[in-house]
Amino acid sequence: MDTIITNLTSPVVMAFVMGIMVKAIKSDLEFPQVLYKSISIYLLVAIGLKGGVELSKTPFSEFILPASATIFMGIITPIIAFVIIRYLGKVDLDNSAGVAAHYGSVSMVTFLASISYLQTEGLEPEGFMPTLLALLEIPGIIVALMIPLLQKSSNSSFGKAMHEVVTGGSIVLLLGGLIIGFIAGPVKFQSIEPFFVNGFQGALFLFLLELGMVTARRFRDLKKVGFFIVAFGILVPILHGFLAILIGFWSGLSLAGTVVFATMVSSASYIAAPAAVRIALPKASPTIYLTASLGITFPFNITIGIPLYYAISLWIGG
Amino acid sequence: MDTIITNLTSPVVMAFVMGIMVKAIKSDLEFPQVLYKSISIYLLVAIGLKGGVELSKTPFSEFILPASATIFMGIITPIIAFVIIRYLGKVDLDNSAGVAAHYGSVSMVTFLASISYLQTEGLEPEGFMPTLLALLEIPGIIVALMIPLLQKSSNSSFGKAMHEVVTGGSIVLLLGGLIIGFIAGPVKFQSIEPFFVNGFQGALFLFLLELGMVTARRFRDLKKVGFFIVAFGILVPILHGFLAILIGFWSGLSLAGTVVFATMVSSASYIAAPAAVRIALPKASPTIYLTASLGITFPFNITIGIPLYYAISLWIGG
Amino acid sequence: MDTIITNLTSPVVMAFVMGIMVKAIKSDLEFPQVLYKSISIYLLVAIGLKGGVELSKTPFSEFILPASATIFMGIITPIIAFVIIRYLGKVDLDNSAGVAAHYGSVSMVTFLASISYLQTEGLEPEGFMPTLLALLEIPGIIVALMIPLLQKSSNSSFGKAMHEVVTGGSIVLLLGGLIIGFIAGPVKFQSIEPFFVNGFQGALFLFLLELGMVTARRFRDLKKVGFFIVAFGILVPILHGFLAILIGFWSGLSLAGTVVFATMVSSASYIAAPAAVRIALPKASPTIYLTASLGITFPFNITIGIPLYYAISLWIGG
Amino acid sequence: MELELVTIISERFLKDDILKMIEERGSKGHTITDVEGEGSRGIRASEWEGKNVKIETIVNKETANKIIDEISELYFENYAVIVYSKTVRVVRGDKYI
Amino acid sequence: MELELVTIISERFLKDDILKMIEERGSKGHTITDVEGEGSRGIRASEWEGKNVKIETIVNKETANKIIDEISELYFENYAVIVYSKTVRVVRGDKYI
Amino acid sequence: MELELVTIISERFLKDDILKMIEERGSKGHTITDVEGEGSRGIRASEWEGKNVKIETIVNKETANKIIDEISELYFENYAVIVYSKTVRVVRGDKYI
Ligand SMILES: Nc1ncnc2c1ncn2[C@@H]1O[C@H](COP(=O)(O)O)[C@@H](O)[C@H]1O
Ligand SMILES: Nc1ncnc2c1ncn2[C@@H]1O[C@H](COP(=O)(O)O)[C@@H](O)[C@H]1O
Ligand SMILES: Nc1ncnc2c1ncn2[C@@H]1O[C@H](COP(=O)(O)O)[C@@H](O)[C@H]1O
Ligand code: NA
Ligand code: NA
Ligand code: NA
């Protein structure tokens, strides 16, 4: 409970709540879409660069197990999510696969919020976590989109969706940043460090303010999607987070690293996945997958999920 | 005279002058509207956050008198402005009330310029000044918009205008920032401090550059509004500023605090008020109220007003 | 070779390469045009301000020779470029003059890249270099646009083009910044320094990322312009750079100053010049002049040119 | 099928009002574009709220007339707003009515 | 000269597909506007990719029909897209056909 | 009342020129939209100055013809610009002429 309050009073989480309030009181405040996009670009490049610099200092042997664990989770979580929603929830094939793609991928901001949270708790996760973030972004989407292919006649836009996933803006910025950070290393990074490191938390603050406003709009659709999806959006992340904690410790991650890993795995994509699903599965309803990932799982993780994964990690491996 | 030159050669004031020049030489330079809006958002959130953090360190007893003085000025200044323009200037009811709403409210940038100015003079106003800024933004608009209601049959869009005032973007960002800063306190604020504090003056520089360009466009309308409005736009701020200095000292504000207080009170809104007046008093002419507040009072305060209020404050209470 | 690799692995150059890659893999990543424009504004103002502050510390006697050398190069380089392209390349009058205008002017980003490069080599050029940048931006365009005037009947839009050149956004921001920085001096500059200095390299990083994407689009036109233009876009900068090194040393610039000077002179404008040429010489083809300046000379200078001018400078005057 | 494309250009702050009104009159959809403009009135507050908006909606003749009448009655006197319509050819037009 | 102005409004991610298609059908040019909109479908993924796009192209009657048919066939079922056309008067119309 | 809606799409840097011209020819107002486009010419400098602009103005038939002629004469040869017009139904049309 205490850790939840610590989390709820951190500036970035309060910014998110403020964003929701802004819409609740029907303020006419609007964030320019371009500002939102510009901050995304900044955050992705910054995460990539820092991750790359850290990776350049990490011995390969330390990195290989967590990386394998990440890809493993990227393959297993969409399958779990699909089975639950398709057979427990009796949702149709396209919508099930669409939702699974979201829960197999990852939410950058949830990832960042967990790092922020741990830092206020005085903990520092492994420097290569952003690399794991990049590794986790893609496989889950591919696995989920392949399910309908296996179950029905081949889909002509699967290839197009794959291209979209692999060359999507977010992954390109993240990977590009990683590679540049890795090649540049800590010394050459110094010149651009003030811009990408000092401003980071503040930019994240503004980003979450806007994301709160977007999430508030999603809340209106909660009724439409029904109780099953709401429960799904809370319980599946807990399940995924729990599995990730076990696997994370097993792969040798520190306590802080494990919490971030669990947060990543439990989070649901709302940028890369929707684009791919829109192309590959046009019949899947955005109302369902966006409400689940952005209207339920995202606020849940940001407020309660992260401290919860921390508590569980402490209990299991602390 | 000396203090005026110090003020005129401060970077932010020079940026304002540069903006006016840019338009005077008919340059095709254009600031993207989104950049302008993004910087406003940043400035408002930053002011709010810093004010909230400072407020969390201020004992209530120290704050109550200045806060009361602020609300008092917020009620009295639109009435003074209304009486002068309606009975001395013989302007019609709607336009008089419209202008009064602007002079009862406050200009964020003028407020910031006064703080910048005092810092170059080596003075530091009270940390809770942004809270006073937020307190002063609304009452004057409400009072001014109620005047026509009292004088003629009830207006159906008054309620809508009130909602607009209270939930307008600028007040929401300022208040939201204040609350978050207050709850977070100085320690939790540290993570986002570099972004919101170090970059502040530079962002203000760009903002004033743009505002200079906007003001230059207002200058073209000076002839249309006539001599009375021009005189009004200079003399009423001086009157308001003078009253504010007396009240400011009385409420226990420091010298620097009093100067900022006088600047705030004397300034005229050009963001919150126009939106509300447009809705509540559609017959009031934007040419009159925007030219007065943005074309006359704003440049007057930025260049001459602030050093003047400083000189008067020194003379009365220094 | 070594210096080329140092250059190629600097973060800003890698950002440029990344931008090209992004387009090569057909990613859907798009930079909002407003972000691009906002960063330009920021960079130009920042260069101006820093240059002005430095100039305020420079004795006039130290500055007069380099300034004269700059104007001299601004007059001579468009003539050289014109003669080569018109008589060697047998390109028509309008297109020749159009291209000459670009090579007589200067590319801000190439200038910045050379300063970045020298700083990683541990060298610091003269502080007044941005003033030279501003001096070099205009004369070359005027000279080039006057050539067709001399050769054929007078052109009615020459005056309009001149106004465009002198009041164009980039020159106004640069000069405005210079003047403000000069008047403010080092002490008053401090308040806005964190914004304009600390963030600079990072903003340049994002700018080059975007510029890489724009350049990649230019590459598609390489075939259209033919071999002569490609050779022109590489050899003329080397020629101009070489001349500039001789003149730079002669005017008393340091080694680092000479390298930056050579880079400036060798670079081709792609912001100020295209606008002016579009107006004054509507028959000149943008495909030719933009492909030459942005598709060939810019990437050449950024990757190979700068280390080359450094090597030559070391050899001649080191 | 032939339907009416009604175009409304107005100050930004009227956007939500107008959208609500056209929906009540029977519009099933609309498209919004950010525009700038100048007309018989000079400057307006929208200089601060952002630009004008253009609202386009495809409706049947009758709805078009209702919307046009409503706009002229409610807004023409006090606000910067114009409205016009033209006939367009649409496919599967039943979706819009 | 009288030609057809065909207007297509669609989710942003269909933009490149549609442009390719209309070019293949004979369009010699087009103009793109960023727009927002609402129609018979609710929310869509484009909330994340940015807004809708409006694609306008001036073509002859025959090409117009081909484009309209193609759009209805390919996209009407699964995507948020509408299309309509009207006749416009152009100068030097031969440039467009 | 029936009037002409004249639409001009051009490179951004011609905007001020064209606005001045249409005003001189009798236009009482206009609406400007930022657009992108492609036509018979390839790349143009506007890649740097921002996008194309679409200028729309509602005028009477006679003014429409004057504007269209002027555009074709002045700009068609050297610049990327197109112009077309269509008839629209406006309310209180006397405001525009
Ligand atoms: N003749 C016109 N042609 C095109 N658009 C117009 C015209 N007159 C007015 N407008 C648009 O309608 C808005 C309001 O016009 P007004 O009420 O005349 O100020 C203007 O800002 C323009 O965007
Ligand atoms: N009746 C209409 N009038 C104008 N635009 C419409 C209309 N219906 C739909 N649209 C536009 O077409 C897009 C797709 O429509 P829909 O497929 O009905 O969701 C919407 O987002 C609107 O931009
Ligand atoms: N057939 C067309 N349909 C719609 N817009 C066009 C067409 N042709 C040209 N345009 C627009 O007009 C601009 C100039 O065209 P152009 O002079 O042909 O390069 C283009 O950038 C487009 O925005
Ligand atoms: Na996940
Ligand atoms: Na006031
Ligand atoms: Na040059």
UniProtKB/TrEMBL annotation, chains A, B, C:
<feature type="transmembrane region" description="Helical">
    <location>
        <begin position="63"/>
        <end position="88"/>
    </location>
</feature>
<dbReference type="InterPro" id="IPR010293">
    <property type="entry name" value="Sbt_1"/>
</dbReference>
<feature type="transmembrane region" description="Helical">
    <location>
        <begin position="131"/>
        <end position="150"/>
    </location>
</feature>
<protein>
    <submittedName>
        <fullName>Sodium-dependent bicarbonate transport family permease</fullName>
    </submittedName>
</protein>
<dbReference type="Pfam" id="PF05982">
    <property type="entry name" value="Sbt_1"/>
</dbReference>
<feature type="transmembrane region" description="Helical">
    <location>
        <begin position="225"/>
        <end position="249"/>
    </location>
</feature>
<keyword id="KW-0472">Membrane</keyword>
<keyword id="KW-0812">Transmembrane</keyword>
<feature type="transmembrane region" description="Helical">
    <location>
        <begin position="100"/>
        <end position="119"/>
    </location>
</feature>
<feature type="transmembrane region" description="Helical">
    <location>
        <begin position="162"/>
        <end position="183"/>
    </location>
</feature>
<feature type="transmembrane region" description="Helical">
    <location>
        <begin position="34"/>
        <end position="51"/>
    </location>
</feature>
<feature type="transmembrane region" description="Helical">
    <location>
        <begin position="6"/>
        <end position="22"/>
    </location>
</feature>
<feature type="transmembrane region" description="Helical">
    <location>
        <begin position="289"/>
        <end position="312"/>
    </location>
</feature>
<keyword id="KW-1133">Transmembrane helix</keyword>
<feature type="transmembrane region" description="Helical">
    <location>
        <begin position="195"/>
        <end position="213"/>
    </location>
</feature>
<feature type="transmembrane region" description="Helical">
    <location>
        <begin position="255"/>
        <end position="277"/>
    </location>
</feature>
TrEMBL record, chains D, E, F:
<protein>
    <recommendedName>
        <fullName>Transcriptional regulator</fullName>
    </recommendedName>
</protein>
<dbReference type="InterPro" id="IPR002187">
    <property type="entry name" value="N-reg_PII"/>
</dbReference>
<dbReference type="InterPro" id="IPR015867">
    <property type="entry name" value="N-reg_PII/ATP_PRibTrfase_C"/>
</dbReference>
<dbReference type="Pfam" id="PF00543">
    <property type="entry name" value="P-II"/>
</dbReference>
<dbReference type="InterPro" id="IPR011322">
    <property type="entry name" value="N-reg_PII-like_a/b"/>
</dbReference>
